[in-house]
From TrEMBL:
Keywords, alphabetical: Flavoprotein, Oxidoreductase
Name this protein carries in UniProt: FAD-binding protein
Domain FAD-dependent protein C-terminal: 271-471
Cross-referenced PANTHER family: FAD/NAD(P)-BINDING OXIDOREDUCTASE, FAD_NAD(P)-BINDING OXIDOREDUCTASE FAMILY PROTEIN
Record-annotated FAD dependent oxidoreductase domain positions: 201-264
Domain of life the protein comes from: Bacteria
A Pfam family it matches: DAO
Organism of origin: Rufibacter glacialis
FAD-dependent oxidoreductase 2 FAD-binding domain residues: 87-121
MF-aspect GO terms: oxidoreductase activity
């Protein structure tokens, strides 16, 4: 027997494990809890619409211990048979790792090929970017074990629930070391400090079952026979062959797009978005969102926000919207080649930085790109041009161009800049000289509107930092809707963000699983 509860609680109860458990038992009418009582916490979400912040909690209280396998299942990864069919997985991001786990469940041997380093070794290259302004093209914030998601904000929320089982992905993460709260919170988050541990555990699971992972192994060519993918060639000149290739290289592997084009494998330009990061004091955002003086207290998490507005430019409306908002976080350098400046955001699990940052970006449609000579790579070339211009404008290192938020809207170069979480440093620049007019002018209109929606948001106590250009892939690698194979090349499975079919850790993981399942159908296991 179970009792289903939907409660509205004060934050100090909802976010204190002991008080929450006591409240749930009391609401279920249990005054003397027995060992058999089991609490299944289903969902927790903050409602800050009123003057008083409340937290909605949904939970089931079982009066007898239920079958836990139906509530908190665990997944097994048995040792693969010696003759298991090999599946090449290019990229060890969220999609690649979950594709590998699913292959093992299906009796296929995953061979993961990753251009970058393992998650621990990767840290030295991140330090070199921040402190010495040195960008390793194969090991950086985008490339390496865990992919771009490892050192991003670690958000585990997705709207792509029709594409797979979100709870299954979250449960596998918990099985590999993530906190169980990700199964409960409406907008779950792991944090950049905990993701490396989780990824290391997934790696050990893959290896223990008999899978392979090859680090520092960049793919430079494909092995093609009569429009059939049979394997890959690496930078060292070695070859790897398999029954199929799952291409899960992420949205920044520009050399893969160029390789596909050079090999006359069909790719397409697709819409994406570019803009800037805006950084406020977290206390300012807390004050706006929680209707307080900036001190949110010990129980509420750092406040976030989501903003969107349609802004015209030369008669064409485009969406201006927040992207990857990082409460209590940091702005980080995400270039993948020297001579570029790219910024992204991340947060530790505690979200305890004094800064809040968010991408504020403008939708870029195909008709906005006057780069027809580049064909399917038009958006990629637009990204590159903007990133190189940002680098040049700020001095040619990883120092990023920046401007006070209100100064940007008024068209005034900032006399000075604020403290920032961005370690390489900032240079005061007229960002309208860096950004294309279709982006810069729309950002000005968007920020003005956001100032009306969030009173206090539009201020020179905030600043914009450029450029946020890697929101998603500007290229789509087409695939059949049913088989997920490339329409032209058999045994090639374009996957997740790099192929244009996902937009975050969870959606990429689900897409990786789907590709593995279709490979199993193809090879007959």
């Amino acid at each position: 027997m179970k009792k289903e509860l939907d409660l509205v609680l004060a934050p100090e109860v909802a976010f204190d494990p002991a008080l929450l458990e006591r409240e749930l038992l009391q609401q279920a009418g249990i005054t003397q809890p027995a060992e058999a009582v089991f609490i299944h916490k289903i969902k927790r979400s903050i409602d800050a619409r009123g003057r008083k912040v409340q937290v909605k909690v949904r939970a089931d209280v079982y009066l007898q211990t239920p079958d836990l396998s139906s509530i908190t299942p665990t997944y097994g990864y048995p040792e693969l048979k010696p003759d298991a069919k090999r599946v090449l997985i290019v990229g060890a991001g969220s999609a690649g790792l979950f594709a590998a786990l699913r292959c093992i469940e299906l009796g296929l041997k995953p061979v993961v090929v990753e251009r970058g380093k393992d998650v621990r070794s990767r840290r030295r290259d991140l330090a070199a970017i921040n402190k010495e302004h040195l960008v390793n093209p194969d090991s950086n914030y985008c490339f390496g074990e865990g992919g771009a998601g490892t050192y991003s904000d670690g958000k585990l929320y997705t709207r792509s629930k029709k594409r797979g089982d979100v709870q299954r992905i979250l449960q596998i993460m918990v099985q590999h070391g993530a906190t169980p709260d990700i199964l409960f919170d409406a907008h779950p988050h792991i944090g950049t400090n905990k993701l490396p541990i989780l990824i290391s555990e997934i790696r050990e699971t893959i290896l223990a079952a008999g899978g392979e992972i090859h680090f520092n192994t960049r793919v430079t060519d494909f092995i093609l026979e009569k429009n059939q993918m049979e394997g890959v060639v690496t930078a060292s000149g070695s070859t790897l062959e398999g029954e199929a290739v799952i291409l899960a290289t992420g949205h920044s592997a520009r050399d893969i797009y160029e390789l596909l084009q050079a090999r006359n494998i069909l790719i397409e330009a697709k819409p994406f978005a570019m803009g800037v990061r805006v950084e406020h004091q977290q206390s300012l955002i807390d004050g706006i969102q929680y209707h307080c003086d900036g001190d949110r207290g010990p129980h509420l998490p750092a406040a976030s926000y989501a903003l969107v507005h349609q802004v015209p430019f030369k008669g064409q409306d485009r969406g201006v919207f927040s992207f990857c908002m990082c409460p209590g976080g940091f702005i980080v350098p995400s270039a993948t080649a020297p001579g570029e400046v790219v910024v992204n955001g991340m947060s530790p699990s505690r979200r305890d930085s004094k800064f809040a940052n968010s991408g504020i970006v403008v939708a870029v449609n195909l008709e906005d790109m006057d780069l027809k000579q580049y064909g399917a790579l038009a958006g990629l070339r637009l990204q590159q041009a903007l990133e190189q211009k940002a680098c040049s404008a700020a001095g040619g290192t990883q120092v990023a161009p920046a401007q006070g938020l209100q100064d940007f809207v008024k068209g005034k170069v900032s006399a000075s800049l604020l403290d920032t979480s961005y370690q390489p440093g900032l240079a005061s620049v007229d960002m309208l000289e860096v950004l294309p007019p279709m982006i810069g002018q729309r950002l000005r209109g968007g920020f003005q509107e956001f100032g009306y929606k969030m009173r206090g948001y539009l201020t020179n106590e905030a600043q914009i930092v450029g450029v946020e250009s890697r929101t998603s892939s500007p290229v789509r690698i087409p695939r059949d809707k049913e088989t997920l194979q490339h329409p032209q090349i058999q045994n090639l499975f374009p996957c997740a963000e790099g192929a244009g079919y996902a937009g975050g850790i969870i959606s990429a993981a689900m897409d990786g699983e789907r590709c593995a399942e279709q490979v199993a159908v193809l090879v007959g296991r």
